[in-house]
What does this fold into?
Amino acid sequence: MIKTIIDKLLGKATAASKTKNPFGKREEVGVDVHNIDPKLVDRRALDVCSTLKEAGFEAYIVGGAVRDLLLGLRPKDFDVATNATPEQVKSLFRRAFIIGRRFRIVHVVYGRGRENEVIEVTTFRAFLDSSKAEQVQGNEKTSKAALAGMKLAVDESGRVLRDNVWGPQNEDAARRDFTVNAMYYDPQTQIVVDYHKGIRDSQKHVLRMIGDPATRYREDPVRIIRAVRFAAKLSKKGFTLDPKTAKPLVECAQLLQEVPQSRMFDEMLKLLQTGHSLASIEQLRLLGLAKGIYPLLDVVVDRADLPFVQAALMDTDRRVAEGKSVAPSFLLACVLWQDVKAGWDKRMLKGEHPHPALQDAIDDVFNHRIGDVSGRGKLAADMREIWVMQPRFEKRTGSTPFGMIAQARFRAGFDFLRLRADVGEVDEALANWWQEFQQADEARREDLIAQVREEQRAKPKAGAAKPKRAPRKPAAATEAQEGSSLDQVAQQAMDSESAAAGDAPAKKRRRRRRKPGAGDAGGAAGGGNGGDAAAHGD
It folds into this structure.
């Protein structure tokens, strides 16, 4: 004991430190211990493993899939790890694609269209020694030229920018983040290979970082977000973050400022769209990360308790749990609706025309909240269509309803309307009318439109009974004083329809109406988010 203390004071390594293996000790655990049900393993993952092994390579199911299998869950995604290089993997499969720069991986694709399944195949990585890595200034974008051709490179803070050095399995295990994500399952022998006591931590329900947590966060700051996501996902199973793993999170959060915005945006969506959005927000608050991770995520966390946003988050979690598709455009449209509506109302008070005012408000939100990351592509187009559709729901006569249900994003717009009705932002009767209209046959749709027309005709008669009527103000002044912007745009549309339908002479021209398409009558089964291709799906 005294000798050990003296050795420490003199800086001498003890016998224990000399024999300590940073790569852990290989343990092979049989089915009698891990109890993994082979029926839970995806057949395509089995095919990838068997193809690689027949070609003479090692192949294991790895990562979160093994963790979920140990917990008796059916994994959503299956990853495979092998000692074959990306080029060797690609050569073995008809539809395989090498992707990524920071770390090259192979996507093996099965099926086509919406039914396609991707098995991600990674090559065992060598243990990272930052002192031997080439250092560059800036990040992936600003240092793109310097990074060309590099296999191992870091920035000034130690964050890994290139990582394409292959190695043995034990070094690959040491490179993974959490012990429960660093196990390898051979589906043929049903053996689990464990280097870092992952099975023990899984049984104890502990999320523990491999190696020194602060160092691992510096290597890849996105691990901070992954820690939150795994803690949220596994919280229902009783998992908690190991104290040593959780301690450096706040002080290391500033490292996320150097991560490219596109990657941060993707990581934010993983937090919100993997079926545990409410639990993720709870973890962010619990761990002291409610602010400063990513500006748009800060907005989500800040508004998570608002009835409309909370309803959208709950709806997203429900759809994921039911195996239905989700799209970021719907959830972000709900989160940012408050900004759009405020900007729209402000412009309307200035006397601007409703439609351009709405478009300008949307543009401002994209510039301020989303920027150039994803706000100018399909995401922005879908969000814009959802928002612009809202005032059009107020117009339920003429050909407008038929044109509405024929739109590709109608179901997204309708689900948005349904959530607004659920929290009392619009009349529930309006959402119910559109629910019935989209499910009805053509005759019933004509009846529904006729009922609305009769209601609109009755309104002017009630007003005519009054002894005097104030002179009509200019349109701009009237709009500026008449409540919500949504009602104003809809009222203009309804006034036009009333003029055509209610105030016309007795002998009217019969107007031909376009019949709905073949798919219109199908509508959606049930309320809210309906079918798989509905609001959240594309």
